[in-house]
Design goal:
globular; 301 residues; nine-stranded antiparallel sheet; 17 strands; alpha+beta
Amino acid sequence: MPLRPALLACAIALMCLPLAAEPPKYRSAQEIIDAAPADAWRTLDPANTLYLELGGGRVIIELAPQFAPAHVANIQTLARERFWDGLSIYRSQDNFVVQFGDSAADEATAKPQGSAKAKLPAEFARKSEGLKFSALPDRDGWAAQVGFVDGFPAGRDPASGQVWLAHCYGTLGAGRGAEPDSSNGSELYVVTGQSPRQLDRNITSVGRVVSGMELLSVIARGPQPMGFYEKPGLRTPIKAIRLASEVPEAERTPLQLLRTDSTAFSDATEARRNRRDGWYVQPAGHIDLCNVPLPVRTTGS
Amino acid sequence: MPLRPALLACAIALMCLPLAAEPPKYRSAQEIIDAAPADAWRTLDPANTLYLELGGGRVIIELAPQFAPAHVANIQTLARERFWDGLSIYRSQDNFVVQFGDSAADEATAKPQGSAKAKLPAEFARKSEGLKFSALPDRDGWAAQVGFVDGFPAGRDPASGQVWLAHCYGTLGAGRGAEPDSSNGSELYVVTGQSPRQLDRNITSVGRVVSGMELLSVIARGPQPMGFYEKPGLRTPIKAIRLASEVPEAERTPLQLLRTDSTAFSDATEARRNRRDGWYVQPAGHIDLCNVPLPVRTTGS
């Protein structure tokens, strides 16, 4: 126990300053999350939730229309019209991304995209007005500020007033060619490696995987350097991509996510920033944006 | 073309300042690496190289005796005495680590460790004297300074004079229990996820994977939260772990690594920090320690 000189001072001077409170008992991030009130959790919106159905199971993606409205609308159209069904994950580059869609997209045999738009504006960043940005206090090399918007890791530049989705593990982006406006959401990638933040503000991010990353991260890597499979037989077939809202309710996965503007989330992040659980001898005093876990639970659990 | 007012000044004043040189043509990191002179490459020291032999192929690890001399010596002993042969990778946690060694280490059936030491000092950090630290200019949230020592990503604290191995993708560390000095190198882990830099200075890092990460990163994840397989049949068998120096020369993998104190390495890193290759519209002006690739080639390639 630490000595308490304040007690002595109080006895001698008869002028009792409030005693320093015992520091609150350290609670781990998990304990904080487990104790979070019901209103710290939000339910995924089925209209902005994609189910990527693979042989191994379901990958669940939350779309971000507040950042990429045109791309998300196109993706919703493509999902409704079952564009991806029977296509594949045709690229897996170690420590970077998996990419999926139509491996013949640049060829005459490309699959028709129905009523989806062929051309969209680039949606790399947007004005911060109308968004609630919960800033992290931690320094970041890639952005003036980092934090979370509606559950998505994001960067912000107060000088320009711009905000953008950050590339972290699980980020879903829209592949593009040389031209900034050459993506339309039909070719998608998910980050499976060390956060490639150099892509921030250079490509349109459209959402993030909230469940099932372990199905994507283990996909055998294609040949170096870029991981496109030379043999089509190595591609991972996509059984279907569906909007949750188009799936019968009984077949939906009932997920809730911890609100990133909740006290429980900021307390859990602080518990990770300064770990005092007996194992750590040197708490970092810091956390990087892409090291902050975004808790998910099955509804009612 | 930009206007050249210096030309006018020269004609009027008859005092010709040197013309501003054309900015040098942008070379990509790969172009710089391809053009690196022979002396920018170093050959792995077979005495400090481990071959982790799996059914799918060989993972090649460079040990770091300059950071963890006691652990590396013990690992060399364990490899010489074939401790790991027939053991397994018994943990795979998504976005974190794979861990390997004796899954029965805490039980009565633990495999004997021969002449390896049971107890070692913790080797979390060391004094910077005697090490060449090639600092990155980039800001970092986890350490006052970051850079490279002999090819290893590292952090440094000028105030304390300490330097330590950083936890990046591919870092090899020695698992420990609650006590800081409870590792002896027999239980090892490799980082397969977003750099868990909070482990820096909290555990003994002993080296890094220089080739074959794609064999470890695809290993099926074990059950959440920690990824230890409940069913032993899901573990990945280790055929052997050998020091390269104990393997006949004809069976060694002849690798070279780009020196992290070479001009080619710093130029390639700068080319990644500020990409001007036509695709990027917003060069980051920054790179994180764990986003810097560490080039490897087969000798003579």
